[in-house]
Amino acid sequence: MSIAVTTPTGQIGSRVVERLLGAGAETAVLVRDPARLPAAVRGRVAVHPGDLADVRALRAALRGARALFLVVPPFMGTDDWAEAQRAVGRAAAEAVRAEGVERVVLVSSAGAQRDDLLAISRLGEVERMLADAAPHVLSLRAGFFFENFLGGVPTVADHGAIYLTLRPERRLAMVATRDIGDAAADALLGGGWTGFRVRGVHGPADLSPTDVAEALTSALGRPVRYVQVDAAAARQGLLQAGASAHVADEYPRLFHALGTLDYQAEPRTPETTTPTTIAEWARAVLVPAVAAAGERVSAAM
Ligand SMILES: NC(=O)c1ccc[n+]([C@@H]2O[C@H](COP(=O)([O-])OP(=O)(O)OC[C@H]3O[C@@H](n4cnc5c(N)ncnc54)[C@H](OP(=O)(O)O)[C@@H]3O)[C@@H](O)[C@H]2O)c1
User: What burial letters (b/e) apply to 191-200, b meaning 16+ CB within 10 Å?
Assistant: First the structure.
């Protein structure tokens, strides 16, 4: 029986596919555009073209599957973020039920149990939809992704600064998407967990934006400052990065909630503490991205 993977072209999904293929697991993927899969992957997985909100496409990918790996995409361009997220949850739950899939691993978020964290709370709704549909559901409540700082690559390359609305000293669980993919792959390959389970995925330490700026400074060998901006500036940045007006309105509200509410991730334990440090991530991922951005700027001049 296969393991069905959604978002195989995404940061986490691509790592899950790599790990499953490395372990010799029969793997099926649901992908909007199969041409976006690396050629080495395309030939080794069962490819099911389709959208995540399409129950028929999901059912085709899940036929004969023993487990589903599900990511609810970021939907940066949507005009109705809540409905886009819920539509994925509804379609996945319906397809899981119809195909009798036993296990689901969902990428959720720290704070998903709360009802006041907007897009994060809606991942909690997706958790509940899946818990009603499959006997065994593992919700990986991930911390703030290191990869969110890739949005700051142009400003780091241009003038050595990263911008967010979070207070400089606000510490959050932060994690590399690679570690989330590894946690998911381990759970999919290992099984063994029963019922509805929640597991934090937290990275090695809680970090503040100031901590991140220090790590980026060391990795790049030149200063990176953290600058706290207000919601209006954050909105402008999101619009420039291609977000819809609706998402650009909601994100600063979400960040305000993350920064001000007494919000905590799941308790940190050895199981939730994953290995990749911000320093390792910065050297492996951010430094090459900044170098490429710098080369693009030089080439354009
Ligand atoms: N950012 C954070 O700090 C954070 C924290 C906790 C949890 N999360 C969760 O993690 C998610 C992001 O995971 P990620 O970084 O791995 O994603 P990602 O790299 O942004 O990739 C998004 C994936 O979704 C696919 N996709 C988008 N819309 C789709 C649709 N309608 N139907 C099918 N596939 C679709 C994309 O495929 P294409 O190749 O077709 O574009 C791509 O594979 C967030 O949306 C959220 O649910 C995020």
Answer: eeeeebeebb
Q: What distance in angstroms lies between residue 107's CA and the mean position of ligand 1's atoms?
A: 10
Please tell me the distance between residue 52's alpha carbon and the centre of ligand 1 in angstroms.
11
Cβ 148 under 6 angstroms from ligand 1 = yes
Answering whether pTM is above 0.90, one says yes
- For 48-80, b/e burial (b = at least 16 CB within 10 A) is bebebbbbebbbbbbbebbbbbbbbeebeebee
pLDDT tier at 295, thresholds 50, 70, 90:
confident
Write down the residue that tokens 């990918």 correspond to. Answer: 61
Question: Which atom in ligand 1 lies closest to the alpha carbon of residue 85?
Answer: 47
* Ligand 1 center to 6 CA (angstroms): 9
